[in-house]
Amino acid sequence: MNKQVLEWIVLVLLGAILLTACGGSAAEPEAAELADAFTAEIVADKPEPTAVPTVAAVAEVDESETAVPAPEVGAVIAGADTAAIAITSELAITLHRSGGFAGLDETWHIGTDGWLRDGQNEALSQVSDETLAALAAQVDQADFFNLAPEYLPKDTCCDRFFYTVTVNDGSRTHAVNTIDDAPNAPDGLWMLISAIMTAVNETPSPTEQLIC
To answer: b or e along 96-110 (b: 16 or more beta carbons within 10 Å of the residue's beta carbon)?
Structure first.
């Protein structure tokens, strides 16, 4: 309410009082009408109250504005490195090699944590990210999960190495058996075996890693 409106109200009230005091009963309705008019003007000048949103409405707005849909399992994030995706997947590789002239029996396991372990599950060394990426690519190139369970000749003599390669990608496990010089073993399988052996031979031990 501004100062001018207050002054007008005061003047009207004073006028009404004076008219009443003078005994003019006919002036009373006129003064009352003027007072009502100013009251209506004052009410009209008042701003309408702003509605306060309810708690439920605020919660609904916040949820719709801030909620971020979760990516689907296995989805490839735009701009992500495909090699990194392969490394961080549930890919585990085990190679068992036995036989040969010395009758060896060896097992190596490369787990999802990137550690190389022996048949007793003792940690031997940490495999580099580059090697893990190369192994993941080799599994894919070999189409490993569609290979036959074994590639063995009728005659398995003599003094040759037997190999069992097992791969788990988090949702399935597949194992393939073969032997040195198996004529029906696909090249992709031999390349995977060679890549695993390279990882075993080239990965430094924990002591060597500390020295480096």
So the answer is: bbebeeeeeeebbbb
